[in-house]
Amino acid sequence: MDRKYVVFEVDKEFFGIPIEQVERILAEMPITKIPRSPKIVAGIFELRGSTLPVVDLRVRFDRPATATSSNLIVIPVSGERVALRVDRVDGIIELAEAVIDRDLAMLRQKEDDFIAGVAKDRARLVLILEPEHLIPIRDRARTLKLAVA
Fold first, then answer.
1. Given this model, what pLDDT does residue 138 score?
2. CB atoms within 10 A of CB 131
3. Among candidate residues 34, 83, 80, the one with its CA nearest the CA of residue 57
């Protein structure tokens, strides 16, 4: 069975999230920094009357910071909405389940299993992410408390 994924770039590498788990894609917006928030939280912003925390995937993936423009991908996590800051959204692709390698024991860690698989799309590899696990357990409660409907 084929499934659609939103593909985005972080530090010249490609990642995908199942499209049904993406609420919306936004251009970079002004973000208010929150002192003493988890390092992965870039800040918060207002979207149609709700306050959403922004998780910077460059920080989450231990990549160097950049000042280039970015996109925000709004997803649900544990019943709250969060925005993922990415370098840029590349588009939507359709992948057959057969092209996704989900046997990634060497890439998974029990407390940090955000990689669900690796797919080959054309001449590139796309790391398929598990959105529910993108916020580390140690930061989840503090990050999700920043979301206000």
1. 87
2. 18
3. 83
Q: Is 133 exposed, middle or buried (0-12, 13-18, 19+ CB in 10 A)?
A: middle
**Residue 84 above 90 pLDDT?**
yes
Tokens standing for residue 96: 């057959």
Higher pLDDT, residue 16 or 113? 16
> What's 32's DSSP letter?
B
CA-closest candidate to residue 5, choices 87, 135, 106, 118: 118
To the nearest whole number, what is the mean pLDDT of the chain?
90
- CB burial string 84-101: b at 16+ within 10 A, e below: bbbbebbeebebeeeebe
Q: Looking at residues 17-21, what average pLDDT do you find?
A: 96
SS3 58: helix
